[in-house]
Task: inverse folding
């Protein structure tokens, strides 16, 4: 048997792709009726889960991400514990910044920090070129392992969208107001264009690699794009998001996600994605009406509700399902990642509630 | 002449109220055509202005707020420097927390901190009752001074809305995810209701006092309400916002403002306000269409644009005015407060641009 350099078989496993195609999650992506509403949780493998914390006691965050066996173990453990309808590969949206050699590290609490941020046109020259197949092959390897371990479950690959990647590269970490990012965008539009074009290319290649390795769908995280005015989004971001999605269009479905995007929904839909991921700050039905009939939607429980006890969780899960009213094309999820303080049992209960209440 | 206890005349000044009524800003509140688009800036008296920094070198933040002569001086200086169409009384949305005796202070950088936050039903008992006329009379006195100094300019009074006040009281300061606030809201709905009812009462009394002292319109700041899901806003917040506005309804116009509210616009309109204040994350025209023809709008330049140089400022001011297309009922403003790094000359230039480009 041929083996990839990491020792992982590079042949696709013997999953029954016909049955996988009929999985409720992939049906929802095509807006086809399914026997129940599929559900997964952003950051479903994370600090709220004791199994994950135990892994993290033995391994650093980047060590977990870059070791295919460990990343696959984290991915699979979360899925088995939660009973969700999809696995999402354990990784981080900033992994493509490693080969750029900007000095990425993760501080205590997993917050990213970039030692040498990009602040001006001149800084662009020192960004090392990125070939995901050469430098991020460990993600492809993790995908192959998970594919083999979970042959019957849709597997989600993912990447950060160009704007969100740019914001970390420019700010050097998390930001509240994206001051340096907007400054470069407004004051050096040519440099901005070059940076975004490069990031879109890398993202497209990275997603294509994940699909080739066996991802059944992908999620594009434009987590912080909600900081932008709609007109700025259209001028400075939308073409690059579209380019980032180009490599996988027509091959696998894409979920296009951001937070604080209630003013950007129509523009995000134009940028692409078979599914638009919504945060909790919009009414799901009103948002879907604005998005139109040609897309599916994912969302949108406030992650804080998982800290509010079973009764409130049940009330809010029911309210969201009521708003959807059985319309095909809904993937249930939180509006952003699971919070570290979330009781695991309540996350499991939430998944069960979605399945029970939506069964048709 | 009768004098209030602070030494300020308590009689209204001899402003020509007929001409003030025809001021473009008050016409905009009534959606009447005006010769140009009126403009003011949230936090127009603030750290970006050298005159303000000089005042702050001599006086603490709360000292400035609570001394009517000083607060009036800060208010008037900013207006004269900028050439804006309204004065807004120099104060802070958290001033009503002083008589509640929760230990409010302002740390370096003016970020508020509350020593004894409210975290549970039991904590409500120790909130001291608030009579704004007795404990916040200095704001009324500042209003009387500014009214006299600027008889021809609309004067804006303001208050924090119940949700935003509650969020500070509960979190103990600024917050990113409003965890404790949502926890109380979900887990102790009866305590939440009591707290919000009390805050709405205080806000209503405080606004009524400001109008009695001479404020021509008010702005209700629900700055952080955008953290909520629309259904939660309607259940837990909207009735209290409506109650907060009840005391001044039909007496003076109200601007109802929040940030991150692109998913809440219809609900905020239902809660009240002749003008809805928009942040920059929505397209102004699309937002106004959703709000309907019965309200005016205020906004919505990204404050970061004022750091981007004259050319970009001009482009973006023009883009917003183009979206409005001369429709009566638009007050130009930033989408949130002026940033401390804003060049004063560029803020002045922005005000002039709005006047020039909109002149009919």
Result:
């Amino acid at each position: 048997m041929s083996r990839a350099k990491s020792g992982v078989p590079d042949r696709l496993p013997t999953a029954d792709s016909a049955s996988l195609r009929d999985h409720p999650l992939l049906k929802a992506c095509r807006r086809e009726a399914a026997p129940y509403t599929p559900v997964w949780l952003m950051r479903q493998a994370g600090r709220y889960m004791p199994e994950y914390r135990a892994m993290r006691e033995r391994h650093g965050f980047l060590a977990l991400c870059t070791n295919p066996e460990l990343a696959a173990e984290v991915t699979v453990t979360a899925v088995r514990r939660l009973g969700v309808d999809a696995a999402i590969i354990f990784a981080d949206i900033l992994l493509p910044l490693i080969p750029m050699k900007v000095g990425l590290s993760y501080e205590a609490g997993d917050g990213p920090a970039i030692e040498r941020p990009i602040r001006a046109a001149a800084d662009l020259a020192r960004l090392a070129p990125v070939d995901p197949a050469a430098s991020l092959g460990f993600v492809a390897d993790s995908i192959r392992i998970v594919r083999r371990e979970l042959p019957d479950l849709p597997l989600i690959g993912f990447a950060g969208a160009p704007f969100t990647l740019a914001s970390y590269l420019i700010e050097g970490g998390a930001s509240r107001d994206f001051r340096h990012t907007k400054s470069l965008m407004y004051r050096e539009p040519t440099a901005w264009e070059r940076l975004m074009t490069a990031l879109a290319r890398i993202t497209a290649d990275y997603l294509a690699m994940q699909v080739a390795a066996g991802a059944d769908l992908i999620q594009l995280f434009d987590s912080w794009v909600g900081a932008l005015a709609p007109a700025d989004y259209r001028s400075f971001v939308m073409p690059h998001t579209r380019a980032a999605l180009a490599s996988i269009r027509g091959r696998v479905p894409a979920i296009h996600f951001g937070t604080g995007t209630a003013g950007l929904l129509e523009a995000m839909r134009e940028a692409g994605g078979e599914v638009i991921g919504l945060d909790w700050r919009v009414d799901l039905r009103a948002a879907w009406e604005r998005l139109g009939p040609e897309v599916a939607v994912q969302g949108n429980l406030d992650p804080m509700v998982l800290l509010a006890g079973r009764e409130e969780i049940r009330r809010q899960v029911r309210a969201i399902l009521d708003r959807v009213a059985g319309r095909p094309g809904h993937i249930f999820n939180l509006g952003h990642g699971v919070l570290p303080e979330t009781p695991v049992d309540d996350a499991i209960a939430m998944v069960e509630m979605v399945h029970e209440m939506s069964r048709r």
Strands of chain A lie at 87-88, 104-106, 112-114, 155-160, 217-221, 254-257, 275-277, 296-301, 330-334. The two ends of chain A are 44 Å apart (CA to CA). Chain A is about 45% helix and 10% strand. The longest helix of chain A spans residues 189-213.
